[in-house]
Amino acid sequence: MYLKRALTLNVMALIFALGFLNDRAEAATIAANDWWLQTDSLGGLRQSTVNDQMFYAVSQSNVWNPGDTYVAPTGYRLATTAEGLAAVGGSGLPEFTYYYQGGWSGYLWEGLARYYFRFSDSNVTLKAKHAGNHDSAPLFTTGDVNNFAGMVLIAEAATVPVPAALPLLMLALGGLGFAARRRKAA
After folding, report:
1. Would the pLDDT of 175 be above 90?
2. SS3 of 148, please?
């Protein structure tokens, strides 16, 4: 049974990939402001309950073009399927990924049904986070391009710039330590 299901999924992925290659000529890079919908009460960005760094960003359209490259909003990057797999199965709160969240009426927001949050490599893996599953539930496998909910994001770690005077301070402290050591040895 498992082997038959795995074979079916592999055949489905192959068919999907061949279609993806044919559509590659029409691929586009879509800036965050051109795909990200920020009109719900969460600003179109819901933090995961199982991973503080993972977020679900809502799409303006509910049709996913697997050939397109979606650009993440500033401060985020698109999550990979591997990162999504690592985040699920935890003991997070039993909240839905986005179903009835942020003012949505079930799967509906602004008159469109939205089910699947995609990963940066969903065009290959066919994996998605289902809006109606609990946040800790396993990923969903589908080649459906309709009912697109948006993208799964990872918050980038904020980089703290080193103050220009810090290396000078470290050099001065080292010099003081060396001078104290020489004085003690004498």
Report:
1. no
2. strand
Answer whether 59's CB lies under 8 Å from 129's CB: no
Q: Is 89 helix (H, G, I), strand (E, B) or coil?
A: coil
Q: What is the mean pLDDT of the chain?
A: 83
Total-model pTM: 0.73
How far is Cα 141 from Cα 64, in angstroms, rounded to an integer? Answer: 14
State how far the alpha carbon of 71 is from the alpha carbons of 26, 114, 133, in Å: 17, 19, 25
d(CA 47, CA 158) in angstroms, rounded, equals 17
Token pair for 52: 């503080």
Residue 129: partners with Cβ closer than 8 Å, 6 or more residues away: 56, 84, 97, 116, 117, 119, 139, 140, 152
The domain ranges of the chain are 2-161
In whole angstroms, how far apart are CA 135 and each of 6, 18, 38, 103, 149?
24, 31, 20, 17, 15
Query: Measured at the alpha carbon of residue 34, what is the angle toward residues 32 and 64, in degrees to the nearest 5?
Result: 90
- Summarised one tens digit per residue, pLDDT across range 69-87 is 999 999 999 999 999 999 8
